[in-house]
Design a protein that fits this description.
4 copies of one chain form a homotetramer. The first copy, chain A, is α/β, with parallel strands linked by helices. The first copy, chain A, has a single domain, classed as TIM Barrel (Alpha-Beta Barrel), CATH 3.20.20. Chain A is built from 16 helices and 17 strands. The first copy, chain A, has helices at residues 58-66, 78-81, 85-94, 97-107, 114-126, 137-149, 176-182, 195-202, 221-225, 231-249, 264-273, 282-285, 320-325, 337-348, 353-356, 373-377; strands at residues 10-11, 18-20, 25-27, 36-38, 41-43, 47-49, 70-74, 132-135, 154-158, 165-167, 187-192, 208-211, 255-258, 277-280, 295-296, 312-313, 361-363. Chain A has an 8-stranded parallel beta barrel with strand order 6-7-8-9-11-12-13-14, surrounded by 5 helices. A two-stranded antiparallel ribbon of chain A has the order 2-17. Chain A has a two-stranded antiparallel sheet with strand order 4-5. In chain A, helix 11 links the parallel strand 13 (255-258) and strand 14. Chains in contact: A-B, A-D, B-C, C-D. Chains A and D meet through strand 2, strand 3, helix 10, helix 11 and helix 14 of A and strand 1, helix 4, strand 10, helix 8 and helix 9 of D.
């Protein structure tokens, strides 16, 4: 057999398939520094709330900023389509399962109101919080100037898959170096999952890259399109692109792993794989302060012809502060995420996130229950 | 240990175990060309409805042709054994589970009526549709002339496993070069799964190869015989045979991945693995216009001594047009298959099916749920 | 890391993880020859019923011989401990689950009656059947002469793990070359799973080797002892030992894969892995003619201090003839095992068992359901 | 792709993924010697009961010592915080599931009473038993002198992850060579999982190492922190460190695999992977004599801000003697652990634990059910 001509398939790995190996030296958790920087902004925790309507509204963005992190407001969601988004969010939460997708398709067919963009941004800024906003590539040229005028701090361009170069007959694609010239804010772009796509994005001069396609709780991209790379491999590959770009440009641009997180252990693994920060969706949709009222849905769901995602019930499990810092009586890893990260860094002897990037991981399938069967059947 | 003398086992992959990696360049979905050619026939969508009684009858074949694809009529099924096949199909749909297999064994024991072959073909042709018909190798010599006389357009010779050379004491096996001489239609042959078997079939001068043994929803070949190769590996291997044959003959003969498809993501992966078209069974059995009345069964099931397959309830989920082109509110990938393919090609920057053959895939087991557990428990 | 000093672990495979790749040439199933030879005995089907009390009694042995195969009578089971074993078998079948193991421990504590050994053997011989009997290594010296005197045809020495050399302070281990001298029958020995253990057994001059430790339906050796090699790897390795022994001695000694079979597909894979014959337990316990009355249990279960195995309900699914040759309406591969084997050989173009040894197999985990989910939920 | 710069992930294995290959020579189980030595102490069985409150109290330690093994008393658990620990243990057993974690957090917030340490140790010693006690690294300097004064025999320093060097600003870390000078007892330290971390610990001059992070039945470290290495790989790696240390120092220091054991087969695999002894928790919590009253919980569970572990119901299945030596009617491998070990050594022809270290193992996923499906559905 002439095997040379056959397509090669590389093995990739998700959160559930790897585990962190503790170090030869350990450290006190309170010794660790977990700062995260985007351009001139420094955050005391490397955790970002995602630009999803069930997660981030004005109040949530202010609270997240106060707690040391960052939340991104979606400029194409219900917050900028409705004067009173609470009503719409309540309607979504009350819809029966079978009607949720058509209802979302209808709600997101309303137009975006430019004036609401300014109002939301200013409400966040007025509270003294850092304001990050997100738009899809197709709407960037129209919405970026409005966001800039309202003095948003960080501008996120995000779609399921974003590349440095987009082919279209009907319109001229978004050129990131041009965008950088036109607005004064640092730009974060995503999502991507491969070494080469990430490197091409970094070379456009942006300030951050979002990593992850397909893994989120409210996303069915992999089922519908067959597209997606598990998060550990995606993070490892994009971290390698970041390091390559650092060596060729001298600039350290952070990569942010986005999607699929449910608990502290996964977050720790993302950093061990090379992430500078993580973006969480469904975990924060469980917070008492989140606007989703115990529900969560993906932002590519409302596509009128090819919805990808489902509305899911996530419940409300605690305050945002508890989710981030504890204390907690929950033992499944869904609360005190910062405590988990610092403890994991401690047992690895990693004093900074960049040291955490260097710790060893092994492939260790979760399928190996090893004595866990009692837990499952415990009553 | 003298390991050299031990049998080697190569790893193979199915749909659920791989994922497509998006490209460094993206493209607009409406920019993509997904034409599929068999000899002088060009279809605007690379999707074929399989020669199964729950999927293709005269009306379904006409509709599929109008929508740009192709449907294959089984010349050895109920359509050519019964003057009024609707009655029989209704009887199958109404049988209790425990009686379904014996009933099918009985129904398929009725003889094929030559006159019905002509009638069915002419009904399809009269509507202006492309007419493809299929027979098993054993009946090819008898039925091919009848199909030719009725002016069928494309002739499919199909069994679970078909090879270029068949050993038998009792009869002289089917010789494909001879068959090509005897009938004027392009011939598609299948199924096969390996590089060498596919290459031998291509060298007989046929116009297309069906790829896939064992993966279908209504097929238990792998349980009963232990035989079968998962579809991604089978497609990769047969695509390599196609490329080899192209390099030795200058002719590009399409390979058609057949069996096991449930949703758009799998279809996209088949093209990324090298397929020129896909053949769908159970997905189309779910169409409002399909003759199976919400049920589906494999054509090797009715074997009197060794049935392989089960009648399964697939339900009716939408019109054929919705399944192919949407729009849809279903988020599991079972509808708008063409939209899914074009979107996947877009995120990969592939403007043609042949460019789609070159995109990267990774091994990414579906077992890695990564945040999907909420979906499963969502109520 | 000095990886050189770390213990290496080789990957092994079971039935569910592999699949047979069809050949470039196919053949008619009725063209295939599936004869199996042990010394001067030739059987027309390569299938042996195991020496378990739920499977083989005098009547079953006679029937199996008539159908072309072989059944092995356990000389240490209920047939030689009880004048009227039917009573005891009925008691076992009627015991509640919680009492099954203690009951079996009690039943098998009764002594073996030498006179019954002779009676059972002669009953089989009188019917014109080939009579194979089995004993454990520890009892071989005592029971072999009795079996020889009663003119058994084939003598099987079987325990969970049998090696060519056994270390003991308290007694002198069984020496197979000595045993060969002392009794006139061909000797089959097992079980073993590795290349070297099998080769050492072959070098003692025996006439057949049983392959398989731990995989049986009624066996928990792997849970209790951690010992066992999946059947495909065990068969491949022992087939390599057989070929090695052939090259050094000129003698072709058959290997018999024993344990873990449930359906035709698995049986076909065992032959593709190199087996000359297969030994079935639980599949035959399902036969109308088997003495287990719908139940099955392992022969190492009754160990008084460390039972390994459970009594399981297997049900009664058909006659032995149906299980072997069909016809059947069952589509799960549990009936018409010979038809399945011949059909699989046909699609592989293998005309003899030895040609079947050469067909390609791939690793193809059953976990890849590929469209099988409908089957699971089909109602 | 510049793959050289990407993080590498090594495959690791747990109990369920491997199996022991029997040897070419077998031996009588009663021929095997399974002695285990720590410094000048020799135990006739290589099995240690873990320092968990549901497992070891004074009576259990005495019984375990009489039966030839060792039990470790936790000096920071309920036995040294409460004059009457039985009351507290009963309260834990009676708490509803939802209140178990907060209750444990409260119970373990009571201070340790120095006088109780002395009383417990002396009660064990008075009975003629070997007394092993355990403390966490942070409390070692305070509690070690008290344990030494009370004449404990073996001193265990144990936390989830313990390294030879700990970084802290707030206090001076524990220095094991200093500890060795200050107390006269042999010191066992753990837990660790990697070659290098184990080797560093061995080089501090201690007398034993505990191996295992994350696998225990009552532990969720891997979920919460993402940290952990499956036990087979951890044992293989640490056994390599032991052998390396032997070659550089001439001293053979035992490694003790700790956590995740449920049945005999797993224990046998740990020895085949290189363990000199095993430490069991949940299996012994099932003993009639254990203080947990049918419940079990991890000692890192009570952490007030980040609990890792759950209280689980394990039930009471037999006496400690039955669990260790049988006889038993249980066929799942949870009883007669010593019998299982000796039998496994027998089929491998291993006469000592060190010979057992050399037996072959294969990767053989438990997912390969091979005929086990009947067991699951057996009624």
């Amino acid at each position: 057999m002439a095997t040379g001509q056959f397509k090669q398939l590389r093995r990739s790995y998700g959160f559930d398939e790897v585990a962190i190996v503790p170090g030869d030296v350990t450290a006190n958790p309170d010794q660790t520094n977990i700062d995260f920087k985007v351009d001139n902004f420094t955050f005391t925790i490397p955790i970002i709330a995602s630009a999803m309507d069930a997660v981030t509204d004005v109040n949530f963005a202010i609270l997240m900023s106060k707690l040391g992190g960052l939340a991104v407001l979606n400029l194409e969601g219900v917050q900028t389509r409705y004067d009173n988004p609470e009503e719409v969010l309540s309607e979504i939460a009350q819809a029966p399962d079978t009607e949720a997708t058509p209802l979302l398709q209808k709600i997101y067919s309303q137009p975006i109101k430019d004036n609401l963009i300014g109002e939301r941004i200013q409400a966040i800024k007025k509270a003294g919080a850092v304001c990050a906003v997100s738009v899809a590539p197709a709407n960037t040229k129209r919405l970026a100037p409005i966001a800039a005028e309202a003095k948003a701090d960080i501008f996120v361009v995000q779609s399921t898959v974003t590349s440095a170069k987009h082919i279209s007959k009907s319109y001229r694609g978004l050129i990131f170096p041009e965008l950088r010239q036109s607005i004064p804010m640092p730009i974060i772009v995503g999502n991507c999952v491969s070494y080469s796509a990430c490197l091409e994005l970094l070379r456009t001069g942006i300030s951050g890259v979002l990593v992850g396609i397909g893994p989120g709780a409210a996303c069915t991209t992999r089922e519908v399109l067959g597209v997606g790379v598990p998060q550990i491999t995606a993070t490892i590959d994009c971290a390698a692109a970041r390091d390559k770009y650092l060596s060729e440009s001298g600039k350290y641009i952070p990569i942010i792993t986005d999607g699929g997180f449910r608990k502290g252990g996964e977050l720790c693994k993302a950093f061990a794989a090379g992430a500078d920060a993580v973006m969480l969706g469904s975990v924060f949709a469980q917070a008492k302060e989140s606007p989703g009222l115990g529900y969560h849905w993906g932002m590519s769901l409302p596509h009128p012809a090819l919805p990808r995602g489902t509305r899911i019930k996530v419940g409300t499990t605690g305050t945002l502060e508890q989710i981030l810092f504890g204390p907690t009586s929950v033992t499944d890893g869904s609360q005190n995420l910062v405590g988990a990260l610092r403890t994991a860094m401690g047992v690895c002897g990693a004093l900074t996130i960049q040291e955490m990037h260097k710790v060893e991981m092994v492939v260790a399938p979760a399928i190996t229950t090893e004595g866990k069967s009692w837990q499952l059947s415990a009553t």
